[in-house]
Design goal:
The complex is a heterotrimer of chains A (281), B (240) and C (275).
Chain A lengths: L1 H21 L14 H29 L4 H6 L1 H33 L4 H15 L3 H15 L4 H28 L1 H9 L4 H32 L10 H12 L2 H32 L1
Chain B lengths: L1 E10 L2 E11 L4 E6 L5 H8 L7 E6 L2 E2 L7 H5 L2 E4 L11 H12 L4 H15 L14 H13 L5 E5 L7 H16 L3 E5 L3 H7 L2 E6 L2 E7 H6 L4 H10 L1
Parallel strand pairs in B: 3-8, 3-9, 6-7, 7-8
Antiparallel strand pairs in B: 1-2, 1-4, 4-5, 9-10
Helix pairs in contact in B: 3-4, 3-5, 4-5, 5-6
Chain C lengths: L1 H15 L14 H27 L7 H5 L1 H33 L4 H15 L3 H16 L3 H27 L2 H9 L4 H31 L11 H12 L2 H29 L4
Helix pairs in contact in C: 4-5, 4-7, 4-10, 5-7, 6-7, 7-9, 8-9, 9-11, 10-11
The chains are: A mainly alpha (281), B alpha/beta (240), C mainly alpha (275).
């Protein structure tokens, strides 16, 4: 009796997976359908199982040559927490300042005064063509040797300067996407250019760019990992310090990867939720 | 030739065709008219299997279209389709547009396909444009190339989805002339169009669709002189 | 006196110049305008830099000759950066292409797996991926530096290429697929001969843009001591303590390379006819 139950289960799971593998949308152009939540669950389950199998296989392979010692990570969980808080701190502070700077540059970019547009363009192009790592190093070791500054300050400054360029572009694109029609309508009613910008354009722009700006926060969290090269004790450096003490390199890095993944995935989900809220309004 | 039997088509929850049935005989020219959104284009795409049915059946030349076991590619090479926005392949010359499918699907040699292409281009009136790219052609020329491309497969039936709706008025005539010639050559045609003059000249039957349902179907003269249903009368009043 | 006067006038004119409707993208500008505006920006930037430089000189002695004496090292670093970038580009396009094709497949499970790959890797900072690859997986498999860097960078960049290719394929009008299929072409033939040629042509500028990002991201290989441009700068810094000069030099290097590539991309964009 027991045997047949087991084989029954096996059959059911095999059938489930063969169904999942052969499941096809009817035609390519019909592929985008809204799926029921049961569908999504099945698909999620399938992906989870495949990814899980791959990871498990890799882990088993590694485990043969390397004794995993997870208890060490547990021992240092306080340090991980502190590092995580520092990462958050850097990201939030940098976000605030880069938004302020970025908005100023973005508006400058579309300004009527040609000189502002050109200077803003120069700034954006200049920053965007230099890697973030180089900016971080330049600010801390370079400018830092001329105008001494703390590690935190250097990290935040580098991130701010870098992100501001991207924020400026988002804002510029947002302003230009509102469209000439709105401006024509406002100006032909007699509104001045400043009033038009403040009351007509910017409110619409803010609604459009919120998802993009949320995405910037995720970039900042990832960018903060680069502050580890200037010995700022955020998450990545914490992991590296721990592994130099304990020699538990794989465990450290896997934990690090996992932590970043969870944080960024949660932020991405929030971004998508915000996007959906804004679209349905 | 074409038998549509009680088909129902949905886009999600929205029903686009309701219990629609139609029979098209060999050599017949059917013109389908109706308001926008009434399901005319969807009907054509169902006939050559580009759209799937919720229920009902369609047979073309005896082959069941919506049967998953049918070799749909072979069936489609027997039906030609012409689209409202031409859908020429922009990265190929006119000649390649026309010869591509015959070479790939029917395994004709490049030379033979080329011969057929040139003769078709002459037939639609633009033999000199064979090495041009679609971007260089006018709307009317593009549509004539599209017709030649469909004819190159030597189909048994042709489907036209509002072939002249995207054209400027002065180019409509050149395309309609090609279609009239085709009709005179006894090609089986199902045409969705608003061109009533064309319909009166060559159509054997007119079909009126409203909200996915076949409202009225009659031989051309009878249809225009004596429309039976109120909705038909109102629609004709609007467009004539 | 009048020369100075006209200079001041020129400058004030540049500062106050305005254009018509600001929020529209600019139209074509004449060469004269470009030169005049470049001069204005140049003067202002130079002014700011000179001010900073003068103030900085009070605290710090600049040793610009350092750059000249390490010419060879900079050149080697630059070559390695380019080598890394090109190899990664090649690998990422292949991997990204496969993932991109999978994400438009009719098989729903393929699409989901492709999404899982892209989302999974994109939620991890590149630095962490590089570290994981070299110090983590690398020590177990004894991966040397260059391959480890290539694998890590490929994994990360391929997600972007996958998205670009997917976007290109999805941007082709459905009518093209209908036209191909209604002629009797099979699904595979339609993709190969009709959709992909058009899609690839469309995304070439985006691919080039991503290459620029790739060059920038290659700087992260320095953390695993791969001898590319950024690492050279750090080594020079530790050797000579001329941190500022060293890093400014590589910033300028990266800027020139990336800016040139961006310019080439824009020219490429113009050459490809938009359909």
């Amino acid at each position: 009796m027991e045997k047949t139950l087991e084989t029954n289960h096996l059959w059911k799971t095999l059938r489930f997976f063969s169904l999942m593998v052969t499941d096809r949308a009817p035609q390519v152009w019909e592929a985008k359908r809204e799926n029921s939540s049961l569908d999504l669950f099945r698909r999620g389950l399938f992906v989870a199982v495949v990814v899980g199998l791959i990871l498990w296989f890799v882990y088993a392979e590694l485990h043969q040559n390397y004794p995993f010692n997870w208890r060490i990570i547990l021992k240092y969980r306080y340090d991980f927490w502190v590092g995580f808080l520092m990462t958050l701190k850097i990201s939030i502070v940098a976000l605030v300042f880069s938004l302020i700077l970025g908005v100023m540059i973005g508006i400058g970019r579309v300004s009527r005064r040609i000189i502002f547009g050109d200077l803003a363009f120069g700034y954006v192009e200049g920053i965007r063509n230099i890697p973030l790592l180089v900016i971080v190093l330049l600010v801390y070791f370079g400018f830092g040797s001329v105008f001494p500054m703390s590690r935190f300050f250097a990290g935040v400054l580098a991130l701010t300067v870098f992100q501001a360029a991207y924020v400026a572009e988002i804002i510029r694109a947002g302003i230009q996407s509102v469209g000439k029609g709105q401006i024509w309508a406002a100006r032909s009613l007699g509104l001045s250019s400043g009033t038009t910008m403040r009351h007509i354009i910017l409110p619409q722009v803010l609604r459009r760019i919120t998802p993009a700006l949320a995405g910037q926060f995720i970039y900042l969290v990832q960018g903060s990992s680069l502050c580890s090269v200037i010995s700022l004790t955020e998450l990545t450096l914490t992991a590296r310090r721990i592994l130099t003490i304990t020699y538990a390199s794989m465990e450290s890095y896997i934990t690090l990867t996992f932590l970043y993944f969870v944080v960024c995935a949660v932020l991405s989900l929030c971004t998508k939720l915000i996007e959906r809220r804004l679209v349905t309004e | 030739m074409i038998q549509v039997e009680k088909i129902n088509k949905y886009y999600g929850d929205f029903q686009v065709l309701r219990d629609f049935s139609l029979v098209v005989g060999i050599g017949e020219v059917i013109v389908v008219i109706g308001a926008s959104g009434s399901g005319k284009s969807t009907l054509l795409r169902c006939i050559n299997g580009l759209e799937r049915l919720r229920s009902g059946e369609i047979f073309v030349d005896g082959v069941k279209v919506n049967d998953p076991k049918t070799d749909i590619n072979r069936l489609r090479s027997k039906i030609g389709m012409v689209f409202q926005d031409f859908n020429l392949f922009p990265h190929m010359t006119v000649l390649k547009n026309i010869t591509f499918a015959p070479v790939k699907v029917k395994a004709l040699s490049q030379a033979e396909a080329g011969r057929i292409a040139h003769s078709l281009l002459a037939k639609v009136g633009i033999p000199e444009k064979w090495d041009a790219y679609p971007a260089a052609l006018s709307g009317g020329q593009k549509q004539r190339v599209a017709i030649a491309r469909a004819l190159a497969m030597q189909p048994k039936a042709m489907l036209f989805d509002e072939p002249t709706s995207a054209l400027d008025p002065e180019m409509i005539k050149e395309v309609l002339d090609v279609m009239i010639n085709l009709a005179r050559e006894e090609m089986t045609m199902v045409v969705v169009s608003h061109e009533m003059g064309f319909a009166r000249k060559v159509a054997d039957r007119i079909v009126f669709i409203d909200e996915g349902r076949l409202v009225e179907e009659a031989p051309t003269e009878v249809f225009f002189e004596n429309p039976k249903h109120d909705r038909t009368k109102r629609f004709l009043d609007q467009i004539l | 006196m009048s020369a100075a006067h006209s200079l001041v006038e020129f400058f004030s004119q540049m500062v106050t110049a305005q254009k018509g409707e600001s929020w529209e993208p600019e139209g074509k500008v004449s060469w004269v305008d470009v030169i005049r505006r470049l001069t204005a920006v140049g003067i202002i930037t130079a002014g700011i830099l000179i001010l900073l430089y003068v103030k900085a000189r009070l605290h710090y002695t600049f040793h610009w000759t350092v750059l000249v004496s390490f010419k060879q090292a900079y050149w080697m670093g630059f070559l390695m950066t380019m080598k890394l970038s090109v190899v990664t580009l090649f690998c990422s396009i292949i991997v990204g292409g496969i993932i991109g094709l999978a994400s438009v497949s009719r098989r729903i499970c393929l699409r989901d797996l492709a999404t899982a790959y892209v989302e999974g890797i994109r939620n991890i900072p590149l630095l962490v991926i590089v570290l994981l690859m070299y110090f983590g997986v690398g020590t177990l498999l004894h991966l040397p530096r260059f391959p480890a860097a290539v694998v890590a960078l490929t994994a990360f960049e391929s997600t972007f290429f996958a998205e670009i290719i997917r976007g290109g394929i999805e941007s082709i009008k459905t009518g093209q697929i209908w036209a191909g299929r209604s002629l009797g072409l099979s699904s595979g033939m339609t993709m190969r001969h009709i959709i992909l040629p058009q899609a690839v042509r469309r995304v070439v500028p985006a691919l080039a843009g991503q290459f620029v990002n790739l060059v920038k991201d290659s700087s992260l290989a320095s953390v695993i001591s791969l001898v590319e441009l950024t690492l050279i700068a750090r080594q020079i810094m530790t050797a000579t303590f001329a941190a500022f000069e060293s890093y400014i030099a590589i910033a300028a290097f990266y800027f020139s390379v990336c800016f040139t590539l961006s310019l080439l991309t824009k020219i490429l964009e113009r050459k490809i006819p938009v359909e």
